[in-house]
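User: My instructor asked us to take a sequence, write out its structure as tokens, and then describe one feature of it. I'm not sure where to start. Here is the sequence I was given:
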Amino acid sequence: MIRILVISDIHGNYPALEAVAGQADIARCDYIFNCGDSTVYAPFANQVLDWLTEHGAVSILGNTDDKVIKLLKGKKFKKPGKAEKRIMYTHTAQTLTPTNRSILRGFTKKKKLVARNTLIKLFHGSPAKHTEFLFADTPDKRFRQLARNCRADIIITGHSHTPYHKIINTTHFINPGSVGRMFDGIPRASFAILELDRTKVQVKLYRCDYDIEQVVAGLKNAELPDIYADMYRMGRKLN
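Assistant: Let's start with the prediction itself. The structure tokens for your sequence are:
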């Protein structure tokens, strides 16, 4: 059997990532799949990228990562327009180490892998669009369209910060939720464990507690907007 830790949307939240690694018993995982948005919002992007590199995670880019890369290239972006949001991107770009700048710029927007003769594809938003939101209650018709066009045994996405596992015809759709920034009012990290053997696919979704006050202290130390401390404590998006 192959055991895979599936994560997404860490958003620079290293304390949450550490908690996930502990609960998932990382030593028992054969692979780590990370569906993007590893940076921005919590102030520990370097620690997150260091951890992903150290553990050989298979990582792709998310939309927040895209904007950080634009800043690293000396480019500008129009959205988000609010100053309290933009500073989260500029802080990340300014504080990344040279090594982690290179690592982030080396990520791609999708990955294709084969494990146990199972074709697995990773995307941030959806197979069709990098920023498409897929939720548990997205109509099955849309999932069928994506499955028909993408052709994979397992399609893993992030972006919506919403954990689910759906089987559409013979295609498994998995969203592990967000490690670092849930929006459902439950301020706990979210992840999935995918297990593959020769005859079946098994997916389990988990939530775990982490040291939120460590994130709050990091935000304060970096002089980042107070509203983000409220969001982490509440597990909600407030702006």
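For the description part of your assignment, you could build on this observation: The mean pLDDT is 96. Try explaining in your own words what that tells you about the chain.
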